[in-house]
Amino acid sequence: MIDFHTLPAPADVDVRTLLPQQPPFVMVDTLVHFGERTTTCALTVRPDNLFCDEGCFSPAGITESIAQTCAVRLGFYNKYVLHQAVQIGYIGAIRDLTFHRLPRVGERLDTTVTICEEVMGMTLAEAVVEVDGERIAEAWFKIALQP
Question: Strand pairing partners for 144?
Answer without folding.
Answer: 90, 122
